[in-house]
Amino acid sequence: MNEPDVTQTALTPASILLTGQVALITGGGAGIGRGIAMAFAAFGADVALLDVNAEAAELVAGLVRGKGRRAMVITADVTDRAALRAGIDRVMAEFGRLDILVNNAGGTRPLALLDTSDRQLDRRIDLNLTSLFTATQAAAKAMIAGGRGGAIINIASIEGLRAAPMHSVYAAAKAGMVNLTRTAALELGEHGIRVNCIAPDVVLTEAMVKANPRSLTPEFKRVHAGYLPLGRAGNFDDCAGAAVFLASAMSAYVTGVTINVDGGTWASSGWTKDKDGKWRLFANDFDV
Ligand SMILES: NC(=O)c1ccc[n+]([C@@H]2O[C@H](COP(=O)([O-])OP(=O)(O)OC[C@H]3O[C@@H](n4cnc5c(N)ncnc54)[C@H](O)[C@@H]3O)[C@@H](O)[C@H]2O)c1
To answer: Which of 37, 99, 204, 248 measures 20 to 30 Å from 24, CA to CA?
Structure first.
């Protein structure tokens, strides 16, 4: 056997490109999904956007086409399993292949465990976990039929890794997402399909800012600087950067992992910095 040539690397700047690939992004009409769609197009992929909001998705499709890539809008709710499967069939019929699936549609509202109705429980699980299973299964079948492997990227949350008061079902669903990612990575690895997660903490999307207009104020920025080690809230490009990496050949040997795109919250694990720049543990008053 020949010795490997240790003076050469097979990696080039082109290794990060997605040229010629087709990506499907659920919830691609806004926020993190829209950011990923724009980044994928900038790195060469054609993009299908599956969203309940057709108007928003059409605007993103326009941005993708503006980057010289093909775009397709599928108006569907990810909790409608038949519509989700039909959406994946449409991508195959119109674009002829599927290389990347981003399970991004999801979300929640604060709700106490004791107040959660059966309906609210089912809705949160359907949106944040069941849809991921259905889309992963259907997309993996399409990728296997294509014979080129693929990349599946799940947008979980840091709340899937820690407790989240007032978000019990959401956090449990996101934790399920993180573990489904691992099992799917094992079962799909032999087909060249890599499955990974991104776990953001706070990402200031328009919806977040609309729900809390104070989030852009200097006062709120100070709050973020206190508990986020990188000193600021996240943005869609922070997530898109991780998604491009996980979609591209740069991560050819990465599967079953969760990348925390959280500005360091997971590492800080209770440590915060007060307004005088002093480190405190669990907002306690003792000095360190
Ligand atoms: N924004 C954050 O701070 C944050 C933090 C951690 C995790 N996340 C996760 O990131 C993902 C995206 O969040 P975001 O903040 O960008 O959301 P967003 O509200 O800004 O955008 C969500 C998009 O998904 C679409 N959508 C919503 N429900 C849908 C459904 N049932 N079927 C199809 N499309 C649907 C919406 O129309 C919208 O275009 C979610 O899974 C969320 O849980 C977000």
So the answer is: 204
